[in-house]
Amino acid sequence: MKLVLASNNRGKLAELQAMLAPLGVELIPQAELGVGEAEEPFHTFVENALAKARFASAHTGLPALADDAGLCVEAFGGLPGVQTAHYATQFGYEKSDANNVHALLEQLAGIENRRAAMVSTLVAVRSPQDPEPLIAVGRVSGEITREPRGAGGFGFDPVMLLPAFGKTFAELPAEVKNAHSHRGRATAQMLELMREHWLPDRSET
């Protein structure tokens, strides 16, 4: 089954491709099909993910999968949330993962409450008008470190500490991260939803 991925984030593509492999799903980045970025005007992950999935499906004629994910910091009232990718720009930095991490550590300087959660919301649609989109949510709670640790992953992975491992996402092997990350949990749910609703006659591989 071919699905257009409503994202041009290479990190997301690699993770989702690996995790959706059991279903024989082929993910095609929307950019390869000439699709631009959808507008994301909403304040919740699920609304933005649904908008992106419908947009990609409408422009390709294919079923679409969209992921909207972000960091929710307790001391900031859950922000940056859906603005995670652009977090650094509000403080005068250019958009980049490294600048996002730098800006976050600056804003948390002197704050003892380092609790945060990484949240991933996956939405899949069969068509732009699909009245029953598949929705899966994964959430992982942890703490923000005081300096980056590890060289793996992307985004805020170098500063997101998982207490159960005593390591950041960036310090974990990819297969361990995928099994325990917010996106990994959301994708596991999505796999089951696809098996149940989209591929009911297909046995598990």
UniProtKB/TrEMBL annotation:
<feature type="binding site">
    <location>
        <position position="177"/>
    </location>
    <ligand>
        <name>substrate</name>
    </ligand>
</feature>
<comment type="similarity">
    <text>Belongs to the HAM1 NTPase family.</text>
</comment>
<feature type="binding site">
    <location>
        <position position="39"/>
    </location>
    <ligand>
        <name>Mg(2+)</name>
    </ligand>
</feature>
<feature type="binding site">
    <location>
        <begin position="182"/>
        <end position="183"/>
    </location>
    <ligand>
        <name>substrate</name>
    </ligand>
</feature>
<dbReference type="InterPro" id="IPR002637">
    <property type="entry name" value="RdgB/HAM1"/>
</dbReference>
<keyword id="KW-0479">Metal-binding</keyword>
<comment type="subunit">
    <text>Homodimer.</text>
</comment>
<protein>
    <recommendedName>
        <fullName>dITP/XTP pyrophosphatase</fullName>
        <ecNumber>3.6.1.66</ecNumber>
    </recommendedName>
</protein>
<keyword id="KW-0547">Nucleotide-binding</keyword>
<comment type="function">
    <text>Pyrophosphatase that catalyzes the hydrolysis of nucleoside triphosphates to their monophosphate derivatives, with a high preference for the non-canonical purine nucleotides XTP (xanthosine triphosphate), dITP (deoxyinosine triphosphate) and ITP. Seems to function as a house-cleaning enzyme that removes non-canonical purine nucleotides from the nucleotide pool, thus preventing their incorporation into DNA/RNA and avoiding chromosomal lesions.</text>
</comment>
<dbReference type="InterPro" id="IPR029001">
    <property type="entry name" value="ITPase-like_fam"/>
</dbReference>
<feature type="binding site">
    <location>
        <begin position="154"/>
        <end position="157"/>
    </location>
    <ligand>
        <name>substrate</name>
    </ligand>
</feature>
<keyword id="KW-0378">Hydrolase</keyword>
<dbReference type="Pfam" id="PF01725">
    <property type="entry name" value="Ham1p_like"/>
</dbReference>
<feature type="binding site">
    <location>
        <begin position="7"/>
        <end position="12"/>
    </location>
    <ligand>
        <name>substrate</name>
    </ligand>
</feature>
<feature type="binding site">
    <location>
        <position position="69"/>
    </location>
    <ligand>
        <name>substrate</name>
    </ligand>
</feature>
<keyword id="KW-0460">Magnesium</keyword>
<dbReference type="InterPro" id="IPR020922">
    <property type="entry name" value="dITP/XTP_pyrophosphatase"/>
</dbReference>
<feature type="active site" description="Proton acceptor">
    <location>
        <position position="68"/>
    </location>
</feature>
<feature type="binding site">
    <location>
        <position position="68"/>
    </location>
    <ligand>
        <name>Mg(2+)</name>
    </ligand>
</feature>
<keyword id="KW-0546">Nucleotide metabolism</keyword>
